[in-house]
Design goal:
Shape: elongated
Strand content: under 5%
Distance between the termini: 47 Å
Structural class: mainly alpha
Largest sheet: none
Length: about 90
């Protein structure tokens, strides 16, 4: 695969909210390579966008204090989101 094709594939992957791991699997390269190329292209996610992507949901500003309190009590991100009604699904305890 040519470098320009690879860069286009990485841009499209980030635009479609794919994880770097999924992009790397599709391109048959390492995750570090995908992240390095994305960084060179200036298409990396911001720190907040990256955490929202990993978490699977965004925390509104008005709920951030409650979310941080729950996280401090050793709830996982998914459990905290479910307690606040931000994440979908059943919570197993």
């Amino acid at each position: 695969m040519k470098m320009t094709e690879r860069r286009i594939a990485i841009k499209e992957g980030y635009a479609n909210d794919e994880s770097p791991k999924a992009i790397a699997t599709r391109l048959r390269c390492s995750v570090a390579s995908v992240k390095a190329t994305a960084s060179q292209l200036g298409i990396t996610r911001t720190q907040k966008a990256a955490s929202d992507f990993r978490r699977g949901f965004a925390v509104p500003a008005e709920m951030l204090a409650h979310y941080k309190k729950l996280m401090a009590n050793r709830f996982s991100a998914k459990e905290s989101g479910k307690l606040l009604g931000l994440a979908q699904g059943e919570m197993k305890r």
